[in-house]
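dumping this here so i dont lose it
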């Protein structure tokens, strides 16, 4: 299991000895100065690339005045944060900061402001600028569900304006809670409007990531199918319940559909791997590498995650919120459906299990996010319950603090490629005919079932589309493609 990471007192003295809280300063700090100091001290302590960023060196600032003055040259706290990121977009593609940690915490548990329509965005085949959306799935009991939005719908305008690569964020992800989507016919990747529109309203949506769980009978095979859309710890009991059904039904094969799963909790990812197996209890599931400060302050065993035979979750105060045995299947093989939206904790499960059992994947290359983060708050130790939590703002950071690998020290920063990095089949979704999730009309599920029943891995050349998504609705949530570990005082 993922272990709680603690630093010794000495390792969280964020400024050098010549710069202490008791120093007299000539600058009266503003709230913005406090936030900048919080950013610096947190990254100085935990950031994975701390030693590679000169402005994060322990001796970079000798006084608070010097630190405040340096960061006042930036126009915002966000700019201060990103000025400290190592090779942003290259080495570090995933660190971020938020100004509302409540929204971030909600997003970790699948609660987001949404119409309930989860979608991807792609460029037209014949245009470098025009963009269309396709509906991946619809969350039940939401505006989208109530207005008959369904998987496979194509839309190319919002509020009467054609979607482009320069306006899609403003049209779809602004603070406006109402939007009108204009539907279109696919037309071989160059959608044409069909005159139909649907009005939708954004609201706080709580999505159960255990979206579909069913047993498929195919010949002499009894196959479990799970569509799992986020590693959200508040739904770990739902995940365990789904596996209880698989176990009671006596399935012999399992398909886990992670094509829309951008990641989440490492602990939940460990539970999923333990549910699929069960025969490796207490063996190493994955390994974490942190920066030298954190590694030096902790027992090396704290950076090992282990297969387990029970769910045991606690709240921020250490109180047990759920404890129950896992309904493990003891399988020796598993099949995953993946896509260019499968990231972080999804990739962790694939990576960890391939050291122990036969793993096959069907889909397209995954994101390649082998790094993880923690949430850092503006308190003395960086935790939500830490002393002197700053009540003057709600900024929190989600910086990359660790790299994770399987027991054989493997990971895939370039993503998992079906049939290349692990056995499987490369196959894109057909945006003109997505089919029904959980049914054989879904081409990816159909091909995975065929792989199980026939063993054939042949792939037609046109099965892999050449164009890629430019964005999707989950990337706009506070958690995005995140993989995180527990951090409490």
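and the seq i came up w/
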């Amino acid at each position: 299991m993922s272990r709680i990471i603690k630093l010794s007192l000495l390792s969280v003295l964020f400024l050098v000895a010549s710069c202490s809280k008791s120093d007299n300063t000539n600058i009266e700090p503003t709230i913005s100065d406090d936030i900048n100091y919080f950013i610096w001290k947190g990254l100085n302590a935990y950031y994975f690339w701390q030693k590679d960023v000169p402005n994060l060196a322990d001796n970079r600032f000798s006084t608070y005045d010097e630190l405040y003055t340096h960061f006042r040259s930036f126009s915002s706290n966000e700019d201060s944060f990103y000025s400290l990121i190592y090779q942003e977009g290259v080495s570090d593609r995933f660190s971020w900061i938020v100004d509302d940690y409540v929204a971030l915490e909600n997003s970790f548990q699948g609660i987001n402001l949404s119409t309930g329509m989860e979608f991807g965005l792609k460029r037209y085949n014949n245009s470098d600028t025009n963009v269309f959306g396709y509906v991946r799935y619809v969350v039940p009991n939401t505006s989208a569900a109530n207005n008959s939005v369904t998987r496979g719908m194509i839309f190319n305008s919002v509020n009467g304006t054609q979607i482009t690569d320069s306006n899609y964020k403003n049209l779809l992800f602004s603070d406006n809670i109402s939007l009108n989507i204009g539907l279109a016919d696919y037309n071989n990747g160059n959608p044409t409007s069909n005159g139909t529109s649907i009005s939708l309203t954004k609201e706080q949506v709580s999505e159960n990531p255990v979206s579909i769980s069913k047993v498929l009978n195919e010949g002499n095979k009894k196959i479990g199918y799970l569509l799992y859309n986020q590693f959200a710890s508040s739904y770990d009991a739902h995940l365990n319940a789904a596996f209880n059904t698989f176990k009671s039904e006596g399935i012999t094969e399992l398909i886990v559909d992670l094509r829309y799963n951008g990641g989440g909790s490492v602990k939940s990812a460990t539970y999923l791997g333990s549910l699929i197996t069960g025969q490796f209890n207490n063996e190493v599931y994955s390994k974490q590498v942190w920066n030298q400060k954190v590694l030096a302050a902790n027992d090396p065993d704290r950076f090992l995650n282990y297969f387990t035979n029970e769910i045991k979750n606690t709240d921020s105060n250490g109180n047990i919120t759920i404890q129950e045995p896992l309904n493990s299947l003891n399988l020796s093989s598993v099949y995953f459906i993946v896509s260019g939206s499968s990231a972080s904790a999804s990739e962790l499960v694939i990576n960890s299990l391939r050291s122990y059992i036969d793993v096959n994947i069907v889909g397209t290359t995954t994101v390649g996010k082998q790094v993880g983060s923690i949430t850092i708050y503006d308190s003395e130790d960086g935790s939500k319950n830490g002393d002197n939590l700053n009540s003057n703002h709600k900024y929190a950071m989600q910086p990359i603090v660790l790299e994770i690998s399987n027991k054989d020290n493997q990971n895939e920063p370039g993503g998992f490629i079906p049939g290349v990095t692990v056995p499987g089949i490369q196959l894109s979704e057909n945006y003109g005919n997505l089919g029904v999730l959980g049914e054989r009309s879904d081409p990816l599920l159909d091909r995975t079932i065929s792989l199980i029943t026939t063993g054939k891995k042949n792939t037609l050349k046109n099965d892999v589309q050449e164009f890629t998504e430019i964005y999707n609705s989950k990337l706009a949530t506070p958690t995005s493609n995140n993989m995180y570990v527990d951090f409490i005082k």
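The first strand starts at residue 96 and ends at 98.
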